[in-house]
Specification:
Elements (H helix, E strand, L loop, with lengths): L3 H30 L16 H16 L1 E11 L3 E12 L11 E10 L4 E11 L4 E16 L4 H6 L3 E17 L4 E16 L14 E15 L11 E10 L9 E15 L2 E14 L7 E2 L15 E2 L1 E12 L4 E13 L11 E13 L4 E9 L4 E7 L4
Antiparallel strand pairs: 1-2, 2-3, 3-4, 4-5, 5-6, 6-7, 7-8, 8-9, 9-10, 10-11, 11-14, 12-13, 14-15, 15-16, 16-17, 17-18
């Protein structure tokens, strides 16, 4: 598993994943409830039966309160072991007069695995001003046990592990505003503290920063995104793009000075009513004196499945994958996927000998029929490893 920056990225995804899947599955219940039925003509006494008044009041109170939802997600990772991620949240509208903005969510998640890894994340995702503004905030705290293989493809191929323990406390926030052509852009910040230590007392590794010493991570950055899909929970057409840039600097109080860039582009093609082809391209680049946990890491963000997080790490990364999705009767479905990727010290140094392939498949089950939100299970084969993962929502 990766270190601070990528572990924080994992937990940020937990929070983002939480609010997305909750607003899909939970919000569908609030929408399906509809408006209170129209009252029947009043009797001569101009009074409404007490039972009808009670039901109407209950429905109104329910609409005002919003919706509480939760979901336990089993997980199995070669990097941090097997366990469960427990998620819960509250869905509500910031303004009853705003019929355009998606619902907002306040939520949290907790992670426990059998290798001693544990952590929690709390966050909010707010939509307001008729979907003109998006605001995401969160806090992560974790104790992580994982393996460091070294940087570079050769180190990943050797498979020699150095067992690490890491503590993490991190706050992040990003706010974007709609500009034009469905493009949102705005600033983002990361502020956190962490420590690295060997799991076995006295061990050292020359590629690692000083162990048993606390350090700070501080960055200012930029987020740009555009989404033309008609259903972001199960896209069948359109495109989705996300670009982020984070600048860590000692002037901000960070112990490391480097830059991190991430670009994700997804495209979707509906073949028939029940069949979709999904395409994904992921590009990662780092500059400056980036520590291993700030570099580009396979096995996170589903790029690519079939690789333990952290086995292949380097300054630059390119991955492409395609997935075939088939919806079956009774809420079931199935998906098959394949991809290729590579890590290296520079994009110019990529070569066919270091390609990292991925192939796999898995069943699907709709947990929200209104928005077609799937519970997925993926069995994947990489170059040297097999992985199994579960989650709510598509991999990309």
């Amino acid at each position: 598993m990766s270190g601070t920056c990528k572990h924080s990225a994992y937990f940020r995804r937990v929070v983002v994943f939480l609010v997305i899947c909750l607003q899909a599955s939970g919000f569908s219940q609030t929408q399906q409830s509809g408006q209170p039925p129209a009252a029947e003509p009043a009797p001569a006494s101009d009074s409404v039966p007490a039972t009808d008044q009670s039901e109407t009041k209950k429905q109104k109170r329910s609409e005002k309160r919003g919706s509480f939802v939760g979901a336990p997600i089993p997980m199995s990772s070669p990097a941090i072991g097997s366990g469960v991620t427990i998620m819960a949240g509250y869905i509500f509208s910031l303004s009853k007069k705003d019929a355009i903005s998606p619902p907002s969510v306040v939520g949290g998640a907790a992670l426990f695995t059998n290798n001693g890894t544990k952590g929690f994340a709390v966050g909010t995702q707010l939509y307001f001003k008729e979907d003109r503004y998006h605001l995401l905030t969160g806090y992560v705290s974790a104790d992580l046990n994982y393996s460091f293989y070294g940087t570079g493809t050769a180190a990943g191929d050797r498979g020699v592990k150095f067992e690490l323990k890491q503590t993490l406390g991190l706050f992040f926030a990003e706010g974007t505003r709609r500009l034009f052509w469905r493009i949102f852009a705005g600033p983002r910040i990361i502020a956190g503290t962490s420590t690295l230590a060997p799991q076995h007392l006295g061990e050292q590794n020359s590629e690692l920063p000083p162990l048993n010493v606390g350090f700070n991570l501080r960055s200012l950055g930029l987020k740009i995104e555009r989404d033309t899909t008609t259903n972001r929970f199960y896209p069948v057409d359109g495109m989705m793009g996300h670009f982020s840039a984070d600048f860590f600097d000692d002037a901000l109080g960070s112990n490391f000075t480097f830059q991190s860039y991430r670009l994700t582009v997804n495209a979707y093609q509906g073949l028939t009513k029940n069949q979709v082809l999904a395409y994904n391209t992921y590009i990662c680049a780092t500059g400056g004196a980036a520590p291993f946990f700030g570099q580009c890491i396979f096995g996170t963000n589903n790029q690519l499945r079939g690789y333990p997080a952290g086995r292949y790490i380097d300054r630059d990364l390119l991955a492409m994958q395609v997935e075939y999705r088939l919806s079956l009767p009774r809420r079931f479905g199935v998906a098959a996927f394949a991809g290729l990727g590579e890590v290296g010290p520079s994009f110019g140094g990529f070569n066919y000998d270091a390609l990292l392939p991925s192939v796999g498949f898995g069943p699907r089950f709709q947990v929200s029929t209104k928005y077609h939100v799937n519970l997925r299970a993926d069995f994947a084969q990489g170059k040297n490893d097999r992985t199994f993962s579960m989650g709510i929502g598509e991999a990309f």
